[in-house]
Amino acid sequence: MAVLKNEFIFGILFVCATAGVNADESGIKLDPLHLEANWEAGQIESFDNHGNQTAAQIKDKQLLSHSSVWFLQQAHLSDNVKVSLGVGGIYFITPASPSNIYSFGQHAAFALSDLHAEFDFWKRETNDHGLSLKVGVIPYKYNEDAKNLGEYMFRTYSYPTVIYTGGLVSLNSAGVQLNGLDANTKLGGLNNDLMLTIKTDQAPSGALSLTDIISYSIKNIFTLGAGYQFDNFYDATGLARGNFDPTGSSNYFVLSDARVVTGKLDAADSSLLVSSGHYTFVGQKAMGRASLDLGNLISSIAPNSFFTDKQFRIYGEIIAMGIKDYPGYYRSLKDRIAYMYGLNVPTGGLLDILSAEAEFCRNPYPDNSGVALQALSPVPNTELGIPGTADNFKWTLYAQKKIMNGFSITAQAARDHMRLVDFFGHYYDQTIMQHPDNWYWAVQLGYSI
């Protein structure tokens, strides 16, 4: 989310208030103002603060806490045109670092959560439409089953192999904020999104990606989905293709003795040179997902069963990050495939949702974006050591219960791709959940109207 100055936020809220006052005169129809507020608290029970597999593991516990309020106002300018504006603020603390006593602190930030216009074409009497065009800053989530893991299409790099989860908010944040254009078609169980987006939160900033995500659902029982992305296919600066790598780390050289040298070629090896090239941020991703709602299936056969929607559900997602292999770092596509499996467990009404998710990715390098962000090079960060196979597995346990209308409690325990935020508001390049006993828990109290 783009952080805004306080004055700009107040200006936006003033515009919203003015629109509300003049709505009847202008013909604008305002939807009821939507409000979301939550307080989240928890604790990191064990984590690696060094980002180094060979360093001594720090087991100090760390507190997690944040409070936030978000407003969403939607206005219908005509039968086929709607605009959405979402703003809010968050108050959070940054965990203390044993090496820096000044790292612990309190922070507040204001941001846009939604800022887009929507144009509907070929609408039908139902909610179906031949084309709905969204332009601007768009909240987006394509896998409704994903609680924490998954949603890989926009939360991964093609090169290097990096996966993200969460953010300042750990729970109920398995989605993204896109900047660009989304052309959506919804006809019955068919749903398709063709998106042209600009990269704003990954390297190289400002590059364009083209993505198509399609799904088909049969009576809310079985859903099958797929997606393909041309990641960073255009970048006016040339950064996406490694043209401005100041360190030369994106170069590779294939030698006649079967060695692959990355970075710079020694004079002694120049006579053995067979071919050369460089790694780039440009790549393709392929995603597939499926879900089977056993509760709805049983209810369709035995209408008097106690199962409700999504309470007994099996789901999964798979993604290939960077279809093309390269000599050296990216020799096998198997190392760049992530698998996520999930199960919603029925609780007989005790909980609304009880879910378990597991992930496997055979990435042989640290889950670290430091070289990409700091050196503008699409290579893994090998200076921190190579993680063992224990880093291949991630997991999440998730539970949610609605207490009363609008108020719910969510709890989560996980070993995911958490990255802490430092005192200056920057995310760690390295995930802190690198060892089998690294994990955290958090509880969120949420209210929405």
Explain this structure to me?
The protein is mainly β and 449 residues long. It has one domain: Porin, CATH 2.40.160. 7% of the residues lie in helices and 45% in strands. It is built from four helices and 20 strands. The protein has helices at residues 6-21, 23-26, 294-301, 370-374, and strands spanning 29-30, 34-46, 62-76, 81-94, 105-123, 129-140, 176-187, 190-198, 208-218, 222-234, 251-255, 260-262, 273-278, 283-293, 313-321, 337-344, 353-361, 393-404, 407-415, 439-448. A 16-stranded antiparallel β-barrel has the order 2-3-4-5-6-7-8-9-10-14-15-16-17-18-19-20. A three-stranded antiparallel sheet has the order 12-11-13, with no helix packed on it. A hairpin with a 3-residue loop joins strand 9 and strand 10. The longest helix has 16 residues, at 6-21. The chain is globular and about 75 Å long.
Keywords:
4 helices, 20 strands, Porin, three-stranded antiparallel beta sheet, 16-stranded antiparallel barrel, mainly beta, disordered N terminus, 45% strand, 449 residues, single chain
Largest sheet: 16 strands, antiparallel, barrel
Spans where pLDDT lies below 50 across 5 or more residues: 1-11, 51-58
How widely separated are the two ends? 22 Å
What's the multimeric state?
single chain
Query: Percent of residues in helical segments?
Result: under 10%
Shape: globular
CATH level-two architecture: Beta Barrel
Mean pLDDT, as a whole number?
86
Within CATH, the superfamily carries the name Porin
How many domains make up the coordinates?
Answer: 1
Radius of gyration, in Å, reads 23 Å
What structural class do the secondary elements suggest?
mainly beta
* Major β-sheet strand ordering: 2-3-4-5-6-7-8-9-10-14-15-16-17-18-19-20
Beta-strand percent range: 35-45%
The helix-strand sequence is HHEEEEEEEEEEEEEEHEEEHEEE
Please identify the top-level CATH class. Mainly Beta
In DSSP terms, counting alpha (H) and pi (I) runs of 4 or more, how many helices? Answer: 4
CATH topology: Porin
Number of strands: 20
